[in-house]
Amino acid sequence: MKVTKVETLEIDLSGENGIALWRPIFARIHTDAGITGLGEASLAFGTASEAVGPMIRKLAERFVLGHDPNDTETVWEQMLRQSFWAQGGGPVIFGAMSALDAGLWDIKGKAAGLPVHRLLGAKTPDPLRCYASQLHFGWEAEHRMHDDPAEYRETARRVREEGYDCVKLCPVYVAAGGGRARHRSLLTPQNRKLAQARMEAVREGIGSDVDIIIELNGLTSTASALQIANMFAEFGVLFIEEPTHYNSPEAHLKVASRSPIAMATGERLYTRWGFLPYLQAGAIDMIQPDIGLVGGISEGMKIAHLAHAYDVGVQAHVCGSPLSTAIALQFEAAIPNFEIHEHHTFALKSCNRDLFEEDLQPVDGRLAVPTLPGFGMTLRKDAEARMEIAAVSLK
What we know:
The chain is α/β, with parallel strands linked by helices and about 400 residues long. It has helices at about 50-65, 70-80, 90-110, 115-120, 150-160, 190-205, 220-230, 250-260, 270-280, 295-310, 320-335, 350-355, 380-385, and strands spanning about 5-10, 25-30, 35-40, 130-135, 165-170, 210-215, 235-240, 265, 285, 315, 340-345, 365, 390-395.
């Protein structure tokens, strides 16, 4: 079996369901055996997705076409070593590598008649524990940033009624009066008061027996991140996520060394080498690799086992289409140090759910791992008809 064609499929859903910028991008790999595989680059949000399609096609043309899909290690290593830029890193090249690697694993699973987690040597687990992610964006059909603490309380009640026993929010993402806040300096008394009111409202809404993860999105400085950690130290917070931006690992290390709350990070780190310094410094208590960015299933497994050697747990970062959810579930089902699955509020939106036949939604805060071959996902024909498709093929 060999790869004969690789397509990129892109769809701009920006503005739908209130999401300002949303542009999923997929790689579809064809073989001479008639088996196809799908992968996704996790760059649907932010500013980068337009650059990924050409990168996927160029990497496919040079390193994937003509190969046996089973040669995932060989293909991955060639993309890393022979592309030149992958040895420097970044989301565009590693997002492209991730999409291609996932597509190859999807083919391998389909050819073997097994879901990817079984191919990786793991039995099918019970449904995985999930947390409701990004409560500050609401938990409704339409994306809506929350300002008033009463909105946080009501959203927290809703997710608790749905059976979640863990939630995540950023209490400082939304500025007073609406809009996105900036916190590159110390929080003012007014900022702190509003964050406190929002957190108290969430705790009231979910009750005392539910975990809370604080999301900071890299918005805060070391000083303001430590303000938040100290404010909520007695609040039953499970982790603080992304307290600082990634361009300065030293900033994260400083916060981790002084914070009374455990630290999680990783959605903008790439490959095992990106995670290693944080693990060596003991500065990360739960890693959050995005399988659509770190290098795919092949590299994600190495990262998880590296973290396992440091006794650190794993939660895959998930903010993409239903395919990214399925890929994360297969990965999380196969690793020994899984902690919890992220179910993003964007996963509730119809513009996302309507891309695939399968609708992966938790029941009572638990999400079943698909057991169909590969990733078990089927792109809807009507969704594909709206996509921009480009391809490279064997000559």
